[in-house]
Amino acid sequence: METTLGTAVKKTLYKAGTRGQADHGWLKTRLTFSFAGYHDPKRVHFGVLRVLNDDQIAGGKGFGMHPHDNMEIITIPLEGVVEHRDNQGNHGIITKGEVQVMSAGTGVYHSEFNHLKDETLKLFQIWLFPNKGNVTPRYGQMKFDVAAQHNDFQLLVSPIEANIPNTLGIHQDAYFSMGKFEAGQEFTYKINREGNGLFIMVVNGSVNASGELLELRDGLGLENITAVNFKTENGVELLLMEVPMELE
């Protein structure tokens, strides 16, 4: 069971099959939260986590130049290669095992395309409300040693003010981690910042978390916790997004 803050744990389950969806031919996407033509008033955000899109982009296709402002944007490739360009002069090629972050701040134009012509690109596109408005736009990407995710959580994204080595900083008190766990494992995730909630996304496999069986692409939001215990019967790959629940 999870460790609590003394109040009842709040759980919000997002089964994979209940997500919004869109098919534009070159883009097939599943939407955990309301986005574009999909709107569910009960699924607008989880704390500062505003967008969690599970995208599949056809070879050579993508999003042309378009604007963003005052949003922290995180891209995690699952299969394939992303090519990024923006009006700040940044050009990035991002592969599986890498993570990209962008602080839109006062405003930025960028494009994201499938860098490969003959392979489908699969990725998570994630947006967070920032804790500071109108910051100078910034871009970052980092390659991680995924071997560190074997039966453990590897911290990928953290608050920029914390200056945590070997992570990508963002303007929010959020912590993103990934881990790959074999069958028969029991493990715990401890909340880094009191009051933060935890959104669990199953990338592959299945896991028991907080009394819930979570399977491929299921999500679970947990509030009023200090730690969560997990147990695997089979193997699992997890993305954990620890985020503030209060909107500033």
Q: Report the CATH C-level class.
A: Mainly Beta
Number of H/I helices: 0
Number of strands: 23
CATH fourth-tier homologous superfamily: Jelly Rolls
The total tally of domains equals 1
What integer value in Å does the Rg equal? 17 Å
CATH architecture: Sandwich
* Helical amount: under 10%
The CATH topology? Jelly Rolls
Poorly predicted spans:
none
Describe this protein's structure.
Belongs to the pirin family. InterPro entries: Pirin, Pirin_N_dom, Quercetinase_C, RmlC-like_jellyroll, RmlC_Cupin_sf. With 248 residues, the chain is mostly beta strands. Helices cover 0% and strands 54% of the residues. The chain is built from no helices and 23 strands. The protein is globular, with a radius of gyration of 17 Å. The mean pLDDT is 96.
List the helices and strands and how they pair.
Blueprint: E1 3-4, E2 10-14, E3 20-23, E4 27-31, E5 49-57, E6 62-68, E7 72-79, E8 81-86, E9 91-95, E10 98-103, E11 108-114, E12 121-128, E13 138-143, E14 153-159, E15 168-170, E16 175-181, E17 186-190, E18 197-205, E19 207-209, E20 212-214, E21 219-223, E22 225-231, E23 236-243
Parallel strand pairs: 14-15
Antiparallel strand pairs: 1-22, 2-21, 3-4, 4-5, 5-12, 6-11, 7-10, 7-12, 8-9, 8-11, 10-13, 14-16, 16-23, 17-22, 18-21, 18-23, 19-20, 19-22
